[in-house]
Amino acid sequence: MPNIVIPYKPRALQKILHGQIDKHRFSVIVLHRRAGKTVMAINHMLKAALTNKYLNPRYAFISPYRLQGKATAWDYIKQFAGKIPGTKFNESELRCDLPNGSRITILGAENDQAIRGISLDGCVFDETQSIKPTIFPEVIRPALADRKGWCIFIGTPKGRNNFYQLYQSAIKNPKWYACTYKASETEILDDEELQAAKDVMSKDLYEQEFECSFQAAITGSYYGTIIEDLVKEKRMVSNLFDEDIDVETWWDLGMNDQTAIWFVQRHKKEIRLIDYYENTGHGLDHYADVLKNKGFEYSTHIFPHDVKVRELGNYAKTRLEALLDLGIVGEVAPKLSIEDGIESVRKNLVNCWFDQDKCATGIEYLKAYQKKWDDKAQVFKSKPQHSYASHCADAFRTGVAGQGIELSNWKKEVPVNTNYIV
Q1: What are the tens digits of pLDDT across the range 103-123?
Q2: Can you list the residues of the chain whose pLDDT is less than 50?
Q3: Would you state the pLDDT for residue 419?
């Protein structure tokens, strides 16, 4: 190919990052808002795509949501790659095809099933702090294996969630690159602009967004502060399961997305969360197998009110009836408003203990469950943000709502399939 000059002049900080990323296969970069991390990552990926010697290289820019990626990255890709002769853009697929056969695609992490099975030479995670933690190990890491592809994780802190854990792991791994750059250090934004931001933002939000603080509370989190208190009170322990106490399960049943299950034991006033499981793309028989393979003795299963809708793949039966056929017998929680349910969870969390190992994912999801932000009004709405954390939080809310309810009449029915009696 002829020499191509991309219309990109990196700042001093961006030059440093390009140099370090070139030396490492995996990079975790924590940068303040307006530091130019998206522009830097796109141009790094574009250069890699243009100089790749393999046949038909593939690259992906992954955002928490596909529409978010379109809003933040697509115009940049067109701006910088548009000067390259022979480049083609597919607007409907958010795909950039370069003249050497390389391809860059914007993907959304909200539907991990849609991106499974791909092969990648390189990848950028944007706003990593808001992406479901399982996407990289379960979906993207295998996609990079064939050609030993690279990955860049960029974002700003959002409490001590998976992005924090990833950053801490990268610091300890000499084969990974990890860095943090605060607004007070880079001088990209002047003092007047930073002061104007301080004037309208809470201290926690400013520390999180501009000073890259992992210590700041997750702004708008419903349960984050309570869970941090549980950590301080040493309520997060290992091997919490007590074989002398029966187990109950709390469910959120997904139709086209995650099904989440909490495994719970009760002792006096204590609520002990001993395990957590979620998955997607499976029928109810899969979750029946999960319950059976856990080996627990179950006292009951608490389902959300929408369990009475039809089961996917079996239009003749409701999910309630399908569960009965599998021998999963339990109770239907009453339907509460989201606000009442959240408040009930807040009151009950103070009585909770968690298995810090088996419930690690569930704990992080509860911390990440937050109010929806209204960009126009610049305030948090009274409704929660729908995200990867929603199903976990909904399952927890189902269990709390179902405490002390009367057994449903259908619980007395005898299931037919004795292979799955749980």
Answers
A1: 999 999 998 888 888 999 999
A2: 405-422
A3: 35
CATH at residue 275: 3.30.420.280
Measure the CA–CA gap between 73 and 84, rounded to whole angstroms: 17
CA angle 189, 194, 195 (to 5 degrees): 150
What is the structure's pLDDT at 316? Answer: 61
Cα distances (Å, whole numbers) of residue 288 to 209, 299, 303, 325, 421? 43, 15, 14, 10, 9
**pTM to 2 decimals?**
0.69
Q: Which position has the token pair 């009367």?
A: 406
**β-strands 371-374, 331-332 pairing:** unpaired
Bridge partner residues of 29 (DSSP): 154, 179
Angle between helices 360-368 and 390-401 (to 10 degrees): 90
Count structural domains, the chain: 2
- Residue 209 CA to residue 217 CA, distance in Å, equals 12
Q: What is the pLDDT of residue 309?
A: 73
Q: Tokens representing 130?
A: 């808001």
Same-domain status, 202 and 256: no
Question: Taking a C-beta distance cutoff of 8 angstroms, is the pair 371, 220 a contact?
Answer: yes
145 and 85 in a common domain = yes
For the stretch 1-35, pLDDT in tens is 567 788 899 999 999 999 999 999 999 999 999 99
Owning domain of residue 253:
226-420
> Do residues 78 and 58 make contact, with C-beta atoms less than 8 angstroms apart?
no
Cα angle value 369/370/373 (rounded, 5°): 145
Same domain? For 168 and 287 the reply is no
- Report the candidate in 10, 13, 421, 22 with the shortest Cα–Cα distance to residue 181: 13
Residue 44 near residue 152 (C-beta atoms within 8 A): yes
